[in-house]
């Protein structure tokens, strides 16, 4: 019997890492969104600090033929910090890790979460990009202030509320599925030979995975 086509929305960390391996199987992007938002959310710690796998896999008749990294579609509820959110998740510049290392102990000591720390990190990233003696001196002052418990807030004094996924932008980039598509029940999927293996994905743990429409919590 031919397996149906579907999307698999995966939000996980390396198997065994933080005990999270959630996959949402659906025949439409709208159904994948509904299943995801009913039972999950974009955890700032996992996305901005831990390094989670957030990916939409495309399955054609039981075979995973490709995937879309969803990290570039993650937005902040305060758009002013979208660039910093992207820097934290993708780490495309070598200095990002160095800045994070500089404030890691400070954040832990004061119990600040990643959303609360976004204004500080945004300021430090801006200074690091600017470079020069004045920027270095200002960076040291900002870190010293944080060590004393002073955490800057966004303009207006309201902390960043959360992260969200830009579904409208994603919908423009997602390939259509070949029918029939998954509507309910199970689907068995295998990875196509040309699909890159993601070490943080639960789909690479075994060669065969039986999933069900809706939420699948793997371990």
Topology:
Blueprint: E1 6-12, E2 21-26, H1 29-39, H2 44-50, E3 53-60, E4 63-69, E5 74-76, H3 82-90, H4 95-110, H5 114-130, H6 133-147, E6 163-165, H7 167-173, E7 186-191, E8 209-212, E9 214-217
Parallel strand pairs: 4-7
Antiparallel strand pairs: 1-2, 1-3, 2-9, 3-4, 5-6, 7-8
N-to-C SSE string, H for helix and E for strand: EEHHEEEHHHHEHEEE
Strand order of the largest sheet: 8-7-4-3-1-2-9
Q: What are the low-pLDDT stretches, counting only 5+ consecutive residues below 50? A: none
- Number of helical segments with 4 or more residues: 7
Give the integer mean of the pLDDT values: 87
Structural class: alpha+beta
Q: Helix content range of the residues, please?
A: 25-40%
Q: What is the makeup of the main sheet? A: 7 strands, mixed
> Globular, elongated, flat, extended or rod-shaped: what is the shape?
elongated
The Rg value, from CA coordinates, equals: 20 Å
Q: How far is it from the N-terminal to the C-terminal residue, by CA?
A: 28 Å
Number of strands: 9
User: What percent of residues are in strands?
Assistant: 15-25%
Described by its quaternary structure, the protein is single chain
């Amino acid at each position: 019997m031919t397996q149906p086509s579907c999307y698999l929305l995966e939000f996980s960390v390396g198997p065994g890492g933080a005990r999270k391996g959630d996959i949402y199987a659906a025949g439409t992007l709208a159904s994948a969104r509904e299943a995801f938002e009913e039972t999950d959310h974009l955890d700032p710690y996992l996305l901005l600090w831990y390094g989670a796998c957030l990916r939409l896999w495309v399955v054609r008749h039981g075979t995973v033929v490709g995937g879309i990294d969803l990290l570039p579609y993650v937005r902040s509820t305060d758009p002013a910090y979208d660039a910093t959110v992207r820097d934290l998740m993708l780490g495309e510049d070598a200095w990002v890790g160095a800045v994070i290392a500089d404030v890691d102990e400070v954040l832990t000591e004061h119990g600040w979460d990643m959303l609360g720390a976004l204004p500080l990190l945004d300021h430090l990233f801006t200074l690091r990009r600017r470079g020069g003696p004045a920027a270095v001196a200002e960076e040291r002052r900002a870190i010293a202030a944080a060590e004393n418990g002073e955490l800057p807030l966004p303009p207006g004094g309201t902390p960043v509320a959360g992260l969200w996924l830009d579904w409208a932008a994603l919908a423009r980039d997602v390939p259509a599925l070949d029918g029939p598509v998954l509507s309910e029940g199970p689907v068995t999927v295998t990875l196509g030979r040309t699909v890159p293996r993601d070490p943080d994905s639960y789909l690479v743990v075994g060669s065969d995975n039986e999933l069900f429409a809706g939420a699948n919590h793997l371990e």
